[in-house]
Amino acid sequence: MEDIQITQFGAPDAPYSSPDTARIAIIPAPLEYSVCYMKGTEYGPQAILNASSQMELYDEELDCSPIEAGIYTYPLLDYHGLDHAAALALTGNTVRDALARKQIPLTLGGEHSLSAPVIAAVHEHYPDLTVVHIDAHGDLRDTYEGTPLSHASIERRVVDMGIPLLEIGIRSFSPEEAAFLKTEPDVAIVWAYEMAKGTTVIPWERLSQHTYVTIDLDAFDPSEMPAVGTPEPGGLHWYQVLDLFRTICRQSEVVGMDVVELCPMPGQTRADFMAAKLVYKMIGYRLFQ
After folding, report:
1. How far apart are CA 32 and CA 88, in angstroms?
2. Which residues in 119-156 are b (16+ Cβ under 10 Å) and which e?
3. For residue 220, what are the β-bridge partners?
4. Do strands 210-216 and 253-260 pair parallel, antiparallel, or not at all (unpaired)?
5. What predicted TM-score, i.e. pTM, was given to this entire model?
6. DSSP 211-258
7. Looking at the predicted structure, is the pLDDT value of residue 145 above 90?
8. Rounded to the nearest 5°, which phi and psi values hold at 113?
9. DSSP-H helix ranges across the chain
């Protein structure tokens, strides 16, 4: 990996990064314990921070610079010496700290298993929470490769918490998950093939007053986002995902977010920049639309 180590999202010396005044808390979580194919997600958060330092910070669509609302970036979480469960607990407790500061947490992954403790922490503050999961994969297995903490089981843990779930862009699903879906009324899925055909109506009425949004970058078509561990053809596109997130912000109050599963490619930075720009657009839509 490159030697550059940006520590604040948006600029090397961001003037709007005070933890006392920032409205957004960026939590870089280089978690990688249950990756089952291409490894490297532990490098994703730093790659996003590095790329963010080269973005223009004026948003032409919103006619403002979202960073001026204040974006505080926590130090990169240190998982050395921790097992998977302890690392997840550290991640959730960091989000609790951000919520105690009355900040909106936005966690950068790392593998998708980090979302479970983060969502649990947000759910403590907002009992009516709904989760919107934008991903290629259903992630509804009860266990995977011998552990219920797997990235492939994240949304099953959300269901276990009693949180309604809306999944969007799914195009990779196991027989186990299909059987579970038929018995679980609190899970709704918008399949990618339906979106491609223009035949789907997204059930936004399922959203509650407060929503958590988790975006696995393999939701995007791999022609646009190649730097993921398990790419799936037929994915979503840049403006399509932006439209989805903006609509969520109009339908509900987004109280927590994450962007996960960037697996940086040596010598390639376009995916890092796409992920960083996505994070910045999400912040802008959340605060200024």
Report:
1. 11
2. bbbbbeebeebbbbbbbbbbbbbeebeeeebbbbbbbb
3. 236
4. parallel
5. 0.96
6. EEEEEEGGGB-TTT---SSS--SS-B-HHHHHHHHHHHHHHSEEEEEE
7. no
8. -60, -20
9. 44-52, 84-100, 115-125, 154-160, 175-181, 192-197, 238-251, 270-288
Integer angstrom CA distances of residue 170 from 38, 39, 178, 201: 20, 22, 12, 14
Fold observed for domain 24-288: Arginase; Chain A (3.40.800)
Residues 32-75 have pLDDT tens digits of 986 766 788 999 999 999 999 999 999 999 999 999 999 999 99
Enter the tokens of residue 289. Answer: 């639309």
- Mean pLDDT computed over 221-228: 97
Residues 6+ apart with CB under 8 A from 270: none
**Distance in angstroms (rounded) separating the CA atoms of residues 26 and 13:** 15
pLDDT the model gives residue 1: 43
* Cβ proximity of 24 and 10 under 8 Å: no
SS3 state of residue 23: coil
- Digit-coded pLDDT (tens) for 78-105: 999 999 999 999 999 999 999 999 999 9
Spatial distance between the Cα atoms of 102 and 79, rounded to a whole number of angstroms: 25
pLDDT at 4: 77
Distance between CA atoms of residues 279 and 264, nearest Å: 16
Q: What is the mean pLDDT of the chain?
A: 94
Locus of tokens 């797997």: 150
206 vs 112: CA distance, rounded Å = 23
Instruction: Please give the average per-residue pLDDT across 221-239, as a whole number.
Output: 96
